[in-house]
Protein backbone atom coordinates (compact mmCIF):
# COMPACT_ATOMS: atom_id res chain seq x y z
CA UNK A 1 0.00 0.00 0.00
CA UNK A 2 1.89 3.04 -1.28
CA UNK A 3 1.60 6.40 0.43
CA UNK A 4 0.72 9.23 -1.98
CA UNK A 5 1.04 12.49 -0.02
CA UNK A 6 -0.98 15.60 -0.65
CA UNK A 7 1.00 18.70 -1.59
CA UNK A 8 2.24 19.60 1.86
CA UNK A 9 5.69 19.58 3.39
CA UNK A 10 6.43 16.85 5.92
CA UNK A 11 6.26 19.47 8.68
CA UNK A 12 2.78 20.59 7.66
CA UNK A 13 1.74 16.96 7.41
CA UNK A 14 2.82 16.62 11.04
CA UNK A 15 1.06 19.76 12.25
CA UNK A 16 -2.26 19.39 10.45
CA UNK A 17 -2.75 15.71 11.25
CA UNK A 18 -2.18 16.42 14.95
CA UNK A 19 -4.95 19.00 15.26
CA UNK A 20 -7.78 17.41 13.30
CA UNK A 21 -9.72 14.23 13.75
CA UNK A 22 -12.13 12.52 16.12
CA UNK A 23 -12.58 13.71 19.69
CA UNK A 24 -15.83 12.07 20.78
CA UNK A 25 -15.26 8.89 22.77
CA UNK A 26 -15.87 5.43 21.30
CA UNK A 27 -19.04 3.74 22.49
CA UNK A 28 -19.14 0.73 24.83
CA UNK A 29 -15.99 1.80 26.66
CA UNK A 30 -15.07 0.68 30.17
CA UNK A 31 -12.30 1.98 32.42
CA UNK A 32 -9.85 -0.33 34.12
CA UNK A 33 -6.98 0.60 36.42
CA UNK A 34 -3.88 -1.57 36.34
CA UNK A 35 -1.81 -1.49 39.53
CA UNK A 36 1.91 -1.79 38.90
CA UNK A 37 4.51 -3.38 41.17
CA UNK A 38 5.55 -0.04 42.67
CA UNK A 39 1.97 0.94 43.50
CA UNK A 40 1.42 3.34 40.61
CA UNK A 41 -1.61 2.80 38.40
CA UNK A 42 -2.27 2.99 34.68
CA UNK A 43 -5.67 3.88 33.27
CA UNK A 44 -6.86 1.59 30.48
CA UNK A 45 -9.88 2.52 28.39
CA UNK A 46 -11.26 -0.70 26.94
CA UNK A 47 -13.77 -0.54 24.09
CA UNK A 48 -15.61 -3.68 23.05
CA UNK A 49 -16.73 -4.38 19.50
CA UNK A 50 -20.27 -5.69 19.13
CA UNK A 51 -19.15 -8.38 16.70
CA UNK A 52 -15.61 -9.65 17.18
CA UNK A 53 -13.01 -10.93 14.73
CA UNK A 54 -10.90 -13.87 15.91
CA UNK A 55 -10.90 -12.45 19.45
CA UNK A 56 -8.24 -9.91 18.46
CA UNK A 57 -7.58 -6.97 20.77
CA UNK A 58 -5.64 -3.96 19.51
CA UNK A 59 -3.67 -2.27 22.30
CA UNK A 60 -2.74 1.35 21.57
CA UNK A 61 -0.01 3.32 23.37
CA UNK A 62 0.06 7.10 22.78
CA UNK A 63 2.95 9.38 21.87
CA UNK A 64 4.84 11.98 23.90
CA UNK A 65 2.57 14.42 25.77
CA UNK A 66 -0.49 12.58 24.46
CA UNK A 67 -3.09 10.39 26.12
CA UNK A 68 -6.07 8.20 25.26
CA UNK A 69 -7.91 11.26 23.91
CA UNK A 70 -5.28 12.22 21.34
CA UNK A 71 -7.05 12.63 18.00
CA UNK A 72 -5.27 9.73 16.28
CA UNK A 73 -5.97 7.41 19.23
CA UNK A 74 -9.71 8.12 19.16
CA UNK A 75 -9.98 8.19 15.37
CA UNK A 76 -8.22 4.88 14.80
CA UNK A 77 -9.93 3.20 17.75
CA UNK A 78 -13.38 3.99 16.37
CA UNK A 79 -12.50 2.62 12.95
CA UNK A 80 -11.15 -0.60 14.44
CA UNK A 81 -14.24 -1.05 16.61
CA UNK A 82 -16.47 -0.73 13.56
CA UNK A 83 -14.45 -3.50 11.92
CA UNK A 84 -14.93 -5.86 14.87
CA UNK A 85 -11.75 -5.43 16.93
CA UNK A 86 -11.68 -4.79 20.66
CA UNK A 87 -9.48 -1.78 21.43
CA UNK A 88 -7.53 -0.84 24.55
CA UNK A 89 -6.21 2.73 24.77
CA UNK A 90 -3.47 2.87 27.38
CA UNK A 91 -2.58 6.02 29.31
CA UNK A 92 1.01 6.09 30.50
CA UNK A 93 1.86 7.11 34.07
CA UNK A 94 0.59 10.61 34.72
CA UNK A 95 -0.08 11.14 31.02
CA UNK A 96 -2.20 14.18 31.85
CA UNK A 97 -2.75 16.23 35.00
CA UNK A 98 -5.95 14.35 35.85
CA UNK A 99 -4.02 11.07 36.02
CA UNK A 100 -1.13 12.40 38.12
CA UNK A 101 -2.66 11.32 41.46
CA UNK A 102 -2.47 7.71 40.23
CA UNK A 103 1.30 7.71 39.69
CA UNK A 104 4.31 9.13 41.49
CA UNK A 105 6.65 7.84 38.79
CA UNK A 106 6.94 9.05 35.20
CA UNK A 107 6.86 7.43 31.80
CA UNK A 108 9.77 7.90 29.44
CA UNK A 109 11.28 6.43 26.28
CA UNK A 110 12.87 3.53 28.14
CA UNK A 111 9.96 2.66 30.44
CA UNK A 112 9.40 -0.69 28.76
CA UNK A 113 8.34 -2.46 31.97
CA UNK A 114 5.02 -0.62 31.89
CA UNK A 115 4.36 -1.79 28.33
CA UNK A 116 5.12 -5.35 29.36
CA UNK A 117 2.89 -5.08 32.45
CA UNK A 118 -0.08 -4.05 30.30
CA UNK A 119 0.47 -6.78 27.70
CA UNK A 120 1.02 -9.42 30.39
CA UNK A 121 -2.15 -8.34 32.19
CA UNK A 122 -4.20 -8.55 29.00
CA UNK A 123 -2.63 -11.89 28.04
CA UNK A 124 -3.53 -13.40 31.41
CA UNK A 125 -7.01 -11.89 31.35
CA UNK A 126 -8.07 -13.98 28.37
CA UNK A 127 -6.04 -17.03 27.43
CA UNK A 128 -7.62 -17.04 23.97
CA UNK A 129 -6.96 -13.37 23.26
CA UNK A 130 -4.66 -12.36 20.43
CA UNK A 131 -3.02 -9.00 21.04
CA UNK A 132 -1.84 -6.52 18.43
CA UNK A 133 0.02 -3.75 20.29
CA UNK A 134 0.61 -0.47 18.46
CA UNK A 135 3.14 2.02 19.82
CA UNK A 136 2.97 5.54 18.46
CA UNK A 137 6.15 7.65 18.44
CA UNK A 138 7.89 7.40 21.84
CA UNK A 139 5.66 4.45 22.74
CA UNK A 140 6.92 2.70 19.64
CA UNK A 141 10.41 2.83 21.11
CA UNK A 142 9.08 1.61 24.47
CA UNK A 143 7.19 -1.24 22.80
CA UNK A 144 10.18 -2.44 20.79
CA UNK A 145 12.36 -2.41 23.89
CA UNK A 146 9.72 -4.35 25.84
CA UNK A 147 9.42 -6.99 23.11
CA UNK A 148 13.18 -7.49 23.10
CA UNK A 149 13.43 -7.75 26.87
CA UNK A 150 10.61 -10.29 27.08
CA UNK A 151 11.26 -12.51 24.10
CA UNK A 152 10.24 -15.73 25.87
CA UNK A 153 6.86 -15.69 24.10
CA UNK A 154 4.83 -15.45 27.31
CA UNK A 155 2.68 -12.73 25.71
CA UNK A 156 -0.30 -13.42 23.45
CA UNK A 157 1.03 -11.18 20.68
CA UNK A 158 -0.03 -11.89 17.12
CA UNK A 159 1.69 -8.89 15.55
CA UNK A 160 3.38 -5.80 17.03
CA UNK A 161 3.46 -2.44 15.23
CA UNK A 162 5.60 0.63 15.93
CA UNK A 163 4.72 3.91 14.21
CA UNK A 164 7.48 6.54 13.84
CA UNK A 165 9.46 5.28 16.85
CA UNK A 166 12.57 7.31 17.77
CA UNK A 167 14.74 4.20 17.94
CA UNK A 168 17.94 6.26 18.01
CA UNK A 169 17.20 8.79 20.73
CA UNK A 170 20.55 10.58 20.48
CA UNK A 171 20.21 11.13 16.73
CA UNK A 172 16.55 12.09 17.06
CA UNK A 173 17.27 14.60 19.81
CA UNK A 174 20.00 16.16 17.68
CA UNK A 175 17.48 16.50 14.85
CA UNK A 176 14.75 17.93 17.08
CA UNK A 177 17.24 20.46 18.46
CA UNK A 178 18.01 21.94 15.04
CA UNK A 179 16.91 25.55 14.54
CA UNK A 180 14.43 24.67 11.83
CA UNK A 181 12.61 22.45 14.34
CA UNK A 182 12.36 25.10 17.05
CA UNK A 183 8.56 25.19 16.93
CA UNK A 184 8.29 21.44 17.59
CA UNK A 185 11.05 21.45 20.18
CA UNK A 186 9.48 24.31 22.12
CA UNK A 187 6.00 22.78 21.89
CA UNK A 188 7.04 19.45 23.41
CA UNK A 189 9.28 21.15 25.98
CA UNK A 190 6.43 23.35 27.24
CA UNK A 191 4.06 20.39 27.45
CA UNK A 192 6.62 18.40 29.44
CA UNK A 193 7.38 21.38 31.67
CA UNK A 194 3.72 21.79 32.57
CA UNK A 195 3.35 18.10 33.30
CA UNK A 196 6.37 18.09 35.63
CA UNK A 197 5.00 21.23 37.30
CA UNK A 198 1.56 19.71 37.93
CA UNK A 199 3.21 16.51 39.12
CA UNK A 200 5.32 18.44 41.64
CA UNK A 201 2.22 20.20 42.97
CA UNK A 202 0.23 16.96 43.14
CA UNK A 203 2.91 15.07 45.04
CA UNK A 204 4.14 17.94 47.24
CA UNK A 205 7.66 18.47 45.96
CA UNK A 206 7.23 21.85 44.32
CA UNK A 207 10.34 23.30 45.98
CA UNK A 208 12.51 20.64 44.35
CA UNK A 209 10.81 21.41 41.05
CA UNK A 210 11.65 25.12 41.40
CA UNK A 211 15.28 24.29 42.11
CA UNK A 212 15.48 22.31 38.88
CA UNK A 213 13.68 25.04 36.94
CA UNK A 214 16.39 27.46 38.03
CA UNK A 215 18.92 25.39 36.04
CA UNK A 216 16.98 25.72 32.77
CA UNK A 217 18.15 28.21 30.14
CA UNK A 218 15.65 30.81 28.97
CA UNK A 219 14.87 29.13 25.66
CA UNK A 220 14.91 25.56 26.89
CA UNK A 221 13.99 22.62 24.69
CA UNK A 222 13.27 18.94 25.24
CA UNK A 223 16.95 18.13 25.82
CA UNK A 224 17.15 20.60 28.70
CA UNK A 225 13.93 19.20 30.20
CA UNK A 226 15.33 15.69 29.94
CA UNK A 227 18.63 16.79 31.49
CA UNK A 228 16.96 18.56 34.42
CA UNK A 229 13.98 16.27 35.01
CA UNK A 230 13.41 13.15 32.93
CA UNK A 231 16.85 11.55 33.20
CA UNK A 232 17.03 11.91 36.99
CA UNK A 233 13.46 10.72 37.51
CA UNK A 234 14.22 7.72 35.31
CA UNK A 235 17.31 6.83 37.34
CA UNK A 236 20.00 8.17 35.03
CA UNK A 237 22.69 10.76 35.71
CA UNK A 238 22.45 12.63 32.41
CA UNK A 239 20.17 12.92 29.41
CA UNK A 240 22.91 11.39 27.27
CA UNK A 241 22.98 8.28 29.47
CA UNK A 242 19.18 8.11 29.37
CA UNK A 243 19.09 8.29 25.55
CA UNK A 244 21.88 5.75 25.13
CA UNK A 245 20.35 3.20 27.47
CA UNK A 246 16.76 3.63 26.27
CA UNK A 247 17.16 3.56 22.48
CA UNK A 248 15.37 0.59 20.93
CA UNK A 249 18.03 0.28 18.23
CA UNK A 250 20.19 -1.50 20.81
CA UNK A 251 17.59 -4.22 21.34
CA UNK A 252 16.04 -4.97 17.94
CA UNK A 253 17.98 -8.18 17.30
CA UNK A 254 16.40 -9.78 20.38
CA UNK A 255 12.77 -9.36 19.29
CA UNK A 256 11.09 -12.74 18.84
CA UNK A 257 7.60 -11.51 17.95
CA UNK A 258 6.44 -10.61 14.46
CA UNK A 259 6.94 -6.85 14.27
CA UNK A 260 6.34 -4.11 11.72
CA UNK A 261 8.04 -0.72 12.05
CA UNK A 262 6.83 2.23 9.97
CA UNK A 263 9.32 5.07 9.41
CA UNK A 264 9.30 8.13 7.18
CA UNK A 265 12.43 9.46 5.47
CA UNK A 266 11.15 13.02 5.96
CA UNK A 267 10.09 12.79 9.60
CA UNK A 268 10.99 16.28 10.88
CA UNK A 269 12.36 15.19 14.23
CA UNK A 270 12.87 11.42 14.32
CA UNK A 271 16.16 10.19 12.86
CA UNK A 272 16.17 6.46 12.15
CA UNK A 273 18.76 6.47 9.39
CA UNK A 274 20.65 3.68 11.15
CA UNK A 275 17.74 1.38 10.21
CA UNK A 276 17.89 1.92 6.43
CA UNK A 277 18.64 -1.48 4.98
CA UNK A 278 18.58 -3.10 8.42
CA UNK A 279 17.36 -6.68 8.44
CA UNK A 280 16.22 -8.85 11.34
CA UNK A 281 14.37 -12.15 11.18
CA UNK A 282 11.15 -11.06 12.88
CA UNK A 283 11.12 -7.38 11.93
CA UNK A 284 9.79 -5.70 8.81
CA UNK A 285 10.88 -2.06 8.57
CA UNK A 286 8.79 -0.15 6.05
CA UNK A 287 9.72 3.31 4.77
CA UNK A 288 7.67 6.13 3.29
CA UNK A 289 8.47 9.60 1.93
CA UNK A 290 6.91 12.96 2.87
CA UNK A 291 4.63 11.56 5.56
CA UNK A 292 6.09 13.66 8.35
CA UNK A 293 5.80 12.49 11.94
CA UNK A 294 2.62 10.40 12.00
CA UNK A 295 1.09 12.79 9.47
CA UNK A 296 0.33 10.64 6.44
CA UNK A 297 -2.35 12.79 4.83
CA UNK A 298 -2.78 11.24 1.40
CA UNK A 299 -4.52 12.07 -1.85
CA UNK A 300 -7.94 10.57 -2.35
CA UNK A 301 -10.80 10.47 -4.83
CA UNK A 302 -13.97 12.48 -4.45
CA UNK A 303 -14.71 15.72 -2.62
CA UNK A 304 -12.49 15.21 0.41
CA UNK A 305 -9.20 17.17 0.47
CA UNK A 306 -7.30 14.19 1.91
CA UNK A 307 -7.62 10.93 3.79
CA UNK A 308 -5.77 9.45 6.75
CA UNK A 309 -3.46 6.96 5.07
CA UNK A 310 -2.04 5.81 8.41
CA UNK A 311 -5.46 4.52 9.45
CA UNK A 312 -5.80 2.50 6.24
CA UNK A 313 -2.27 1.17 6.60
CA UNK A 314 -2.84 0.01 10.17
CA UNK A 315 -6.14 -1.62 9.28
CA UNK A 316 -4.45 -3.41 6.39
CA UNK A 317 -1.64 -4.67 8.63
CA UNK A 318 -4.12 -5.84 11.25
CA UNK A 319 -6.47 -7.54 8.80
CA UNK A 320 -3.89 -9.17 6.57
CA UNK A 321 -1.13 -9.91 9.09
CA UNK A 322 1.31 -10.11 6.21
CA UNK A 323 1.39 -6.85 4.21
From TrEMBL:
<dbReference type="InterPro" id="IPR012020">
    <property type="entry name" value="ABHD4"/>
</dbReference>
<dbReference type="InterPro" id="IPR029058">
    <property type="entry name" value="AB_hydrolase_fold"/>
</dbReference>
<dbReference type="GO" id="GO:0034338">
    <property type="term" value="F:short-chain carboxylesterase activity"/>
</dbReference>
<feature type="active site" description="Charge relay system">
    <location>
        <position position="293"/>
    </location>
</feature>
<dbReference type="InterPro" id="IPR000073">
    <property type="entry name" value="AB_hydrolase_1"/>
</dbReference>
<feature type="active site" description="Charge relay system">
    <location>
        <position position="267"/>
    </location>
</feature>
<feature type="domain" description="AB hydrolase-1">
    <location>
        <begin position="57"/>
        <end position="275"/>
    </location>
</feature>
<dbReference type="InterPro" id="IPR050960">
    <property type="entry name" value="AB_hydrolase_4_sf"/>
</dbReference>
<dbReference type="Pfam" id="PF00561">
    <property type="entry name" value="Abhydrolase_1"/>
</dbReference>
<feature type="active site" description="Charge relay system">
    <location>
        <position position="137"/>
    </location>
</feature>
<dbReference type="GO" id="GO:0047372">
    <property type="term" value="F:monoacylglycerol lipase activity"/>
</dbReference>
<keyword id="KW-0378">Hydrolase</keyword>
<comment type="similarity">
    <text>Belongs to the AB hydrolase superfamily. AB hydrolase 4 family.</text>
</comment>
<protein>
    <submittedName>
        <fullName>Alpha/beta hydrolase</fullName>
    </submittedName>
</protein>
